[in-house]
Amino acid sequence: MKPTPTLARAGCVLAAFALAGCGFFESAEDKAAPVISFAPYTENYAGKPDFAYVEHRFPLSTADLYRITPKNLSFLDQEQVDQIYARLTAGPIPDGPFEGDLFFPRGGSGKLRLSEIAGGGLKSLLVNVAGAKLDLIGETLWKGKVFYRDQRLLRNRIEDLDALKKLGLVEDSAANPLQKTRVDGKDQWLLFPAKLYCGQSLLDGRRESIIIDYAFTDELPGYRRMPDIMAGRDGFAIRDEIRMVYPGFYLGRAYLDRAFVVNFVLYNKDIAERAKDEFLKTGKVQQDCWTGTQQRLVVMAPARTG
Amino acid sequence: MKRVLAVVALLVAVFVAAIPIAATTLPGAGTTGAADTAAGAPVATPAATPPTAKVVHQQDAPYYEACAREGLNESECAGRLIWFKATAGNERFHTYVFQQRVGVLIDWFRVLRADQRGDRFRAWGIINDPACCVPGSKNCPAKSLDETYGLDWCPGDEELLGYVGRSGYPDPACDFRDAPLKEGDPHASSDQRQSACDLRFGTSTGALGIRKFPNPRFDKAAWVKLNGKAGSWEGYNRPIAAAGGGSEAARSHLQDGGIEPPFLIGTSCGSCHIAFDPLNPPADPANPKWENIKGLVGNQYTRISEIMVSGMASNTLEWQMFAHARPGASDTSAIPTDQVNNPGTINALINIAKRPTFADEDVIKWRKVASCGDDKDETSCWCEPGRNGKCWKKSLQKETVHHILKGGEDSIGALEAIQRVYFNIGSCSEQCWVNHLTDLRQLDPQQRNFGQTPFDIGQCRRDCPHFRAIEDRLVNILDFFMSAEAHVTDLRVARENVRRAAMPAAAYTEQDLIADLEKEFGAGAVARGSEVFASTCARCHSSQPEALAGQTAGLDFHKLDLRTGLREDWLGNDRATPVSEVGTFRCRALHSNHMAGHVWQEYGSETLRARPPDPNVKEPGDGGRGYYRNVSLLNLWAHAPFLHNNAMGPELCGKPKNAENDFYAKRPRYVDGSNVKLLPADQQPACFEYDPSVEGRFRLYKASMEELLNPAQRIPKVTLLNEDVTLRIGPRLWDGTDKEKLLGFELTIPSEIDGRGVTAGTIGNFQHKQFIVDLVRAKTDAKALEGSLAERFGAETGTRVLQDLQAIAGELVGKPNALVEALKARPYLIKQIYSSCTAEVENEGHRFGEDLPESDKKALIAFLATL
Lengths: 306, 867
Fold this sequence. Notes:
Strand content of chain A: 15-25%
Structural class of chain B: alpha+beta
Number of helices of chain A: 8
Largest interface: A-B, 66 and 68 residues
Strand order of the largest sheet of chain A: 1-2-3-5-6-7-8-9
Shape of chain A: globular
Number of strands of chain B: 22
Oligomer: heterodimer
Strand content of chain B: 5-15%
Structural class of chain A: alpha+beta
Number of domains of chain A: 1
Radius of gyration of chain B: 27 Å
Number of helices of chain B: 33
């Protein structure tokens, strides 16, 4: 894998929730919301359109998909992000290393922390007894990942263990050394193993998503009780789901104990560049998961905007 | 049965088991014997002919035999086969969606394991499939549980098992032979029905109405590694203690979406509606024969709710919310939850042709047309692509419709009411309706799934092939409903059949029945009972025009319609009565899924929604809620206990050998009315053990009638929480060093508050979202909240609620778990203010007839037994 801008941002890890300066790209498309169509909606839940309607009436073209970048999604509000997610398919289960990042939608605060969101919007009442740990998990977990597609396994790449160690959350000993990998010439620790499978989206049931499930992390190779337990069923019960925007780029949703907390993106530049021409030409890609039965229009011409 | 097994054994000898082969067929076979129409049934329609053009699967043979026995024509027989077998794709719901999206786990092995086949009826109320066998038993084609992954072997498995772990299974539904198209159908210019493959039959699991399909994603090596051997699910369903210990519920790999079981399990409508024939019950309920089984009676013993939560620990919210329906009842709004706890019985479908209809109701729905003409708006007219003139147009019209469901909901037409049953069983869930449900964890009113949104019939037709497969054959299912299989099952005939079993020439006449009844209930009881019925009951429980006009004296309630041979009187007018007038447990009447903006809006008529609220109900009852239909009393002798929740009469119990599945023992119901706490075990009336025999049903009928007519003697029944249950709002953390810490709220509903028991419905009815929204507003926007509370509850109560919410918010600072104690100190917030239904006693109300003399009560019991 070639060096990416992301890997040059070693100092940005702890400022991950602040968007400025830590993005993947520097292109103009990153600086404004993608120009794609959305179905009309209102603020209240009852005014949100059915996803089947959104997809039927506002299909995304492949050209539309390439207007979306890992960075410009944050200029959208959550409903717009949701409408994009619903119009994606799972695509192939990824393989190899991916860069990752959390993002908060327009209207959400860049300073909003997971521990506040996870309280179900109850921050005015909450006393955050475990917030520091959860926030740290957030800063750690939705960053770089390594997919082991054939094993249906995922591990998270941790560049900096210091923060975890300061909270006493890393068990390390000569008898049980931490696993490492080397990406772009840099050592990275592999923690938080998770299962990979095709499963239900908790947002849009019309087709499956790729699930990254930490529930039984303790049964996976490379598991170490601390810190991995915090992501598992006895910890925060983290379950992510992802769908492919285009080859090499996935949009994800993270859940704690089945409650949605944050969006994230995963990106592999090599795959993205290698597959772009073919995908633009055909709009087709391998589908590893159930794609549903709603006829999904592959619109090769630019879609309407609005 | 023996013949079937012999054929199967022969086939297995020829073909190697577990290797995909051509469909097992009986070319030209399938119908044997003359129609054995039950006495008292109307003139038989032409018997079904066996399919000739397509393959006849071995597993279908008994079904065609049943069609011949019942005298069903081709359409009725096609409808029957669909009713018994079609899952319409819901095997994905029962394997993936319910578990992962809804978050409720089914332990299919616990329910279906072959080594407990003999205990299934007593545990789960399941009707065993007579064609299936326990691997290793005599004449069973499968010799070991490993061959069938622990389940029964059933016809068709010689093919299906070879596809476990790989794709390409040719579903037997693809060979379903359709009935001829109906004349006059706007779509019948040619056969344009959706492929029958989309009906999805699979093979039986050994439990009638529960079907299995090979899982192409199954990894046998991984399965054996997890479970030790192919025939065990021990590693999959074994409880895994929570690391936090204490009150935390155990988990299991049933929640692990990374493990693919060998089968996808689906259910047909028959899973709840298939039952033992009251006229011909099995000698051994665990081993019925085909002739003991009917498809429309309704299974009075099913514990479908317990089946649906069979993989959950009992101290979970989900178990407590589901597993409280009585045998024969289920809460069909538990999955598409309206947060109104309201189990209802599975209706016995009897003499549907005589069921009352209602003219001139305002109905918005899609109707078949041959063309959309100039209408290009697909939200009002849509033609199926690739078809010739197969179009539907949506409009508001006056219609004559049935009133279905307990309160008359599902009122846009009989076909659509049948159509919606398929959503109750999970069909098209992913394509059409899970996105419209309330997510109990979503607390932000601005986010999707904070509340329900309406299911869109047009969208579902367009996007779900299983919907179209069923819709194109609804007329066959309705024909089945109208068929001889739904005809009355009178006590006289049942008793005659019993006598004929011992002596084929025996007769049991109407006079014999009356004589026996009068021997028990007094001389002249039947005749006197008819008079009492006319004066006391018929204003609601007769469909005769004179009764509807208030003139009930002298009516003949047994009168036959000579044209059809059916009983003229349906013995219920199906009209809606305000729940406060009936006085029965009102939660079901407050069911809200058919209200405007709610998930089943499109299945309710505008007329339904225009009904005024019952002014005597204190909970919100708008949108047409607050009513119960006046139900049919046909064959009352065979369908006790009574009322919409089966609460009137003795409590039923199966007493299974496996004590883990003894659900009645886990939840006795009789309480001390003064404190709503369970009576001591030695004061609990004995439960009534499952007994589908003729005299068993009759005994249950009499006991239930006694309770009905003597309300002062009823011991109150309440379904109580049997342990404290904790709701978690926000994630938990157990970090391995301290006891569990919480980020969000922990809200424990105690099983007892201030010395009073707490009902299980308290959880299902708790409006936690509104409570939390108000709790936040009490701190952030108290003035606006005060106005809102005053509007909802009146000024005085509103002020009290606001003060308590503000106090709670203060008590929580620094102590999120203080909510438990805060609410314990203010139980009215959970039990009244934030509850969708506050009713407690489940066997109250319907006191009509309580003032009758004892002799008249007995007369009424005698007379009703003849209906």
